[in-house]
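It is worth pausing here to work through a concrete case rather than discussing structure prediction in the abstract. The textbook approach is simple: state the sequence, then state the predicted structure, then interpret. We follow exactly that order.
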Amino acid sequence: MDEYLSDKEQVERLRQWWRENGWFLIGGVALGLLGIYGYSQYFAYQDRQSEEAAALYAGIKEQAEDGSTAEAATEFAAMRREFPDHAYTHQAALLLAKEEIVSAPDAAAEKLRFTMEQSDDPELAMVARLRLARVLAYRDRHQEALALLEVPDPGQFAGRIAEIRGDIYAALGETDDARTNYLQAMVASGAELLDRSFLQMKLADLPGGASASSPAGESAPAAASDAVDAVEAPAEAAPGETAPPGAAPEQSGDGQ
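Step two, the predicted structure:
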């Protein structure tokens, strides 16, 4: 029994155990410390990346607001190479798409598609999708725009999607489909983010149309900008990131 061992025998057993297991213990402690160090270094690296991306975004935003779109596009190309997956890069893409919608619609469409396909933020990707649909419609690529709006589960974007569909069908002269989609927009999920008065105006402007109210008879707060504005200010920073100086927050709807 161990309790009957002499002190010398207990020390000898301890030494024997250490000879057999000491390196495993040291290795385990070392690996644990390395893991903690690597973990802290990873988050420090992420913070540095966010700070650098935020600074680039702020510069691009300032250039775009000053009308230096070409310089902003050059800066964005470098930012995209260095931070291809960063949320600030996708926000910069939305910002520049707004500036390029008239002067370079193809470039605007490419930036929106980049964000739609590459962003890890589902809402940001959906905003880019809706804006891209408007750009395509603006370029008379109506069928492509309609195909882009075929989203299985749009959630709170259902109302905005229905409104954009209505605009496209109205442009195509398909009055019945336009009216159906405008009416659907008034009661679909996310309808509270739309401007009901504007929707009623669109209905009244349809051939043979008149202003209509929602089947539910409920009013929705006015919260939408011009529906034909394809792109607005970029979305706010992803959760956990610090917004760059002067960055305007983005609502979740298209063009809101």
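Step three, interpretation. The two ends are 79 Å apart (CA to CA). Confidence is low (pLDDT under 50) at residues 211-256.
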